[in-house]
Amino acid sequence: MLFNSIDFAIFLPVVAILYWTVFSKGGVKLRNAFLLVCSYFFYGMWDWRFLGLLIFSSTVDYVLGRLIGGTADGERTKRKFLLALSLVVNLGILGFFKYANFFIDSVEGLFTFFGTELSVSSMNIILPVGISFYTFQSLSYIIDVYKKEVEPAKDIVAFLTFISFFPQLVAGPIERASHLLPQFNDIKKFDYEKAREGITEVFIGLFKKMVIADRLAVYVDSVFQNAAEGGTAEIAGFPSVLGLIFFAFQLYIDFSAYSQIAIGTAKILGFNLSTNFRRPYLSRSFNNFWERWHISLSQWMRDYIFIPLGGSRHGRSRTVRNLLVVFAVSGLWHGASWNFVIWGIINALFVIVLDPLLSRLKVKGLPASMIVFAMWTFSLAFFRAEGFDAALSVIGSMGFGNIGRIADFGLGWNEMVFSLLLLTVLMSFEYVAEGMERKGNNILNVLVFSRSCVLRWGFYFVLVFSIILFGVYATNNDNSFIYFQF
Predict the structure, then answer these.
(1) What is the mean pLDDT of residues 426-433?
(2) Example GO molecular function term (predicted)?
C-alpha cells in the first residue's frame, strides 16, 4: 500500500478513528493488537506471501531476546550462541532474498574473467518489500539485548508491533528498541496539536513526493533509460548533467517525503519516530552530510559496524579501513549490485580524502556546501544507473553543450521552469529553517501553527489543492517510493 494512494487515504483515517475511539477504552494490549493487525494488513497489501516471513523472523527474535535476557552473567558462550543464531536467521533470510542472484552472477563473472565458462542459472527471487529495514531494526534489538542496553520485551504483541509498525515498516526510519518499543507500553491520550502536526507533515510529504519528486522522475528516467540503451549521443552535454542533478534532488525529496509521511502518520497515532533527514544539502563537509542523510541507517552503521570494528580509536590506517568497510556494507545494503558497492566506496573516499582537504584549504560556507553537493551528485551516477557501463555513459556524456535539448526528455520548457522554481523554493525554505533551528525555533511553528485560524487553514487548503492540481499522476510513471526497492 503506497502512502500516495487512494487506498492509504482511506486506510489511515479509518485506523486513526478506530484507534482513538473504539480501541481507546480497551487498554494498551488491545490497542497494540489492533495496530499489529493493521500493520500486517498494510504489509499484506503488497504480497501476502511475504507476511509469513515478517512474522517468522520477528517471532524468532522475540524468543531469542527472551532467552538471551534469561541467561546468567557467566553464560557468555550461551549468550554468544543465541546472538549468532539470530544473526544467521536474519542475515540468512536477507542474504537469500536479496543477494543470492548477486552472488551467483559475481561467481560466474569471476570464472569468466579467468577464462573459464561457468553457466549457472539465476533464481527467480522476488525481493520482499522492506526486508532490509525491518531486518536491521530487529537485529539492533537483539544486539542491544545482548549488550544489556535494553531489557528483552516480555509482551510479544508489543514486540511484533514494534517490528511491523506500518508507518515506518517499509522504508524506515530504522527505529531503536530503546526509543520506540517503550511507546507501545504507554497509555496514550489524544493530543489535538500533535495530531494536527502529524496531518500537516503527511500533506507536506505528499506535496514533496507528488509535486516535486515525481515530476523530476519523468526527466531522470528518460535520461538514464537512454544511457542504459547506449544512447549517449542523445544525452551528451548538459542533458546528462541536469539528469544527474535532478536525480540528486529526486532521491532526497522522495525519501525524505516518505520519512516525513511516516513521522506524521505516527504522530496522528500518538507515537514519535526518529528524524531521518536534517537538510543534508546544506552540509559543509561529507562527514556532516552523513550525519544529516538517512540518519537512522548512518547511526546503525556507526553503532553496530564502525565502532565494533574499532572506530577511530586505533590510528589513521585502521580508521580508513573501518570507514571503507562501513561504506561498502552501506552500499551493498542499498542493492545487490557492484554499482552500489562502488557508490559506497566513493563516498568513503570523500570522507577520508576530501574532508581533510577542505579543512586544510579552509573551504567553508557556501563553497563547501557546493563542493559536497557536486561530489555527492557525481557519485549518484553509480547509484541510479542500470549497470556499470550505463553509469560510465552518464559520466562520460557530461558537459555544457546541447542546452537547447534539455526539454526533449519528458519535461517541456514550462514544466522545466516550474521544476526549477520548486527546487529554488524548497532550498530557500530549508536555508531559512536551518537558521531558525539554530535559534531554537521550528519553521512550521513560526509560519503556520502560531498563526491565526484563517492563515493556518489557508495554508492547509493551498497545500492540499497544490497536490491535487500539480501532482504527477501519469499512468506510465512509477510513483512508488525509490527506497521501496531496498
Answers:
(1) 92
(2) acyltransferase activity
